Amino acid sequence: MSQENQNTKDLKRSSCGRYEGNALVILGAGESGVGTAILGLKQGFDVFVSDKGAIKEKYKTVLNELQVDWEENQHSEERILKADVVMKSPGIPDTVAIVKKLEAKHIPVISEIEFAAVFTSAKIIGITGSNGKTTTTKFIYHILKHAGIKAGMAGNVGDSFAKMVAETAPDWFVLELSSFQLDGIRDFKPEIAVLTNITPDHLDRYEHKLENYIASKFRIAENQSAEDYFIYDFDDELIKSWLEDHPIKSEKMPFSLQQKMENGAYIENENIIVNIKNDQFNMPTSSLDLQGKHNTKNAMAAATVSKLLRIRKNTIRESMESFQGVEHRLENVLKINNVQYINDSKATNVNATFYALESMTTETVWIVGGTDKGNIYDDLLPLINEKVKAIICLGVDNEKLFRNFGNCVDTILETQSMREAVSMAYAIAEKGNSVLLSPACASFDLFENYEDRGRQFKEAVRNL
């Protein structure tokens, strides 16, 4: 065996745990699954892709071009159980029958993130959190690109990490990481980890136990060493409490709106201050294009990463001033008759909607609803009383919303049509008001995903 082939074999073994052979089975033929097929094929694996549901035509085309064996609407257990390693797409729970059978046979079941990381020499910045991770990921990537650093962005945003590893060779990867992706890691570790915040979310995947969800988020730091960095929200009580009971090895870099940080980021006289080993960076919060306390925190995390990478202060400042956020997250769509329409479709949980309502400076017509994930709405009530003039419930089942908010406003309506929801808002809103789509719920009752929901909102507003 050549030295090159031996190195490849060692890479495979180190990425997937103890196994011999090169039979790679991929469960799920979405973005991460097809990306893993591309990388697996490049690395010499014998690849088989299996999806319990229907595979989208665009992914079938790619798999056929790769000449990879695939199946849809079934799992051929006999073939799957002969795998040396299995990459499970993040949307597939650990509790499904085929995964349990794989585990019983001690066949490694890992995530795309785990599989791909071993095949790149790039350093990694990993970002996770219940809210703000997409904005923070894009914020950091924007700064790195502006600084001339050869960087790639992947994970839970954009192309799959595996596909990017197969096709590009940056110096740094900026990865948005969901808890589902982190659940499938073994050896993966980022040089810089960012945890934006933790609020209850996806508890149906975690036995309805908050501690299981928190542990999943903290997996981003579990393999870090003393040479690595962990950036986190010091104001988040769940994070602070967990760190007290579960020490980590990496160097902690907290950020806070409330307290001065000796090593980290804080606010002083309406300026963001980042202090790392007595090297200080500062800029006014008013210079940020993104407003709201949550976006200030996202900016603090991004600035801390930038300082750790020793990017010039002027470059950081210019980049932060020019960053305009992400689609479907507090996105100003149009102003019609002096009423601002705002698309916050990415707010799929209560905490995200809390931030959205908190940032409102005018009376607001609020469009809410969708697939409830066990939401508790109590924290929203003071903001609704202060800022919301009318509520439009957009969902298949709106009974819980009426029960929680019926006494908060004079006008509460319901619909199952985005076009009708926007028309209702147009009829209610007065000069100087805002219309905010911030659903606090998943989108799957009426829409394909939150992007589809946001696009339909924008289209309906433009057609007013």
TrEMBL record:
Q: Give the UniProt keywords, A-Z.
A: ATP-binding, Cell cycle, Cell division, Cell shape, Cell wall biogenesis/degradation, Cytoplasm, Ligase, Nucleotide-binding, Peptidoglycan synthesis
Residues covered by the Mur ligase C-terminal domain = 328-441
Sites where the protein binds ATP? 129-135
GO MF terms here are: ATP binding; UDP-N-acetylmuramoylalanine-D-glutamate ligase activity
Major localisation: cytoplasm
Q: Which GO terms describe its biological process?
A: cell division; cell wall organization; peptidoglycan biosynthetic process; regulation of cell shape
**According to the UniProt entry, what is the EC number of this protein?**
6.3.2.9
Q: Which Pfam families match?
A: Mur_ligase_C (PF02875), Mur_ligase_M (PF08245), MurD_N (PF21377)
The pathway entry for this protein reads as: Cell wall biogenesis; peptidoglycan biosynthesis
- SUPFAM superfamilies (alphabetical): MurCD N-terminal domain, MurD-like peptide ligases, catalytic domain, MurD-like peptide ligases, peptide-binding domain
Q: Does the keyword Ribosomal protein apply?
A: no
Compartments in which it is found: Cytoplasm
- List the catalysed reactions: UDP-N-acetyl-alpha-D-muramoyl-L-alanine + D-glutamate + ATP = UDP-N-acetyl-alpha-D-muramoyl-L-alanyl-D-glutamate + ADP + phosphate + H(+)
Briefly state the protein's biological role. Cell wall formation. Catalyzes the addition of glutamate to the nucleotide precursor UDP-N-acetylmuramoyl-L-alanine (UMA).
Q: What is this protein called?
A: UDP-N-acetylmuramoylalanine--D-glutamate ligase
Q: Which gene encodes it?
A: murD
